[in-house]
């Protein structure tokens, strides 16, 4: 998909951490199409939330916990592929057309995940202390279940 007239993006290479907040202050939206097997937490999602930058991401790894549900886009996972878990691999593809449509709609919402994240240690401890830990377990999305079921561990 090509960018429209007047649209643009900028690839920004790694920066020293102390420059992150100035960098994020210039963002209209952060697009996070990662389906990496290594980037599962998505610290940048917490940072963008704290900087009050809206995020559009694929429904992968920690994104469903850290991004507004309306800002999540579909992921089609690769199945039947072998990969080494010690190296970075894309596990699927985020629906880029859906991401673009959401951004164009102007309906991208801010996330407040940085506020919720601050008490995750207490939430985690309450799950561990619960007599029935299974009741509080997070639920996988259907695409995550299918992807995990397709894995052939050697």
Strand order in the largest sheet: 1-2-3
H-E order? HEHEHEEEHHHH
Average pLDDT confidence is 84
Estimated radius of gyration: 17 Å
**Spatial gap, N to C terminus:** 38 Å
- 3D shape: globular
Number of strands: 5
What does this structure look like?
- Helix content is 34%, strand content 10%.
- The chain has 154 residues and is an alpha/beta fold.
- The model has no long low-confidence stretch (mean pLDDT 84).
- It has one domain.
- The termini are far apart.
- The chain is built from seven helices and five strands.
Task: Compose a concise summary of this entry.
This protein is α/β, with parallel strands linked by helices. It has one domain (17-150).
Give the topology.
Blueprint: H1 20-25, E1 30-32, H2 43-50, E2 55-58, H3 63-66, E3 72-73, E4 75-77, E5 92-94, H4 96-105, H5 113-117, H6 120-129, H7 142-150
Parallel strand pairs: 1-2, 2-3
Antiparallel strand pairs: 4-5
List keywords for this structure.
globular, alpha/beta, two-stranded antiparallel ribbon, 154 residues
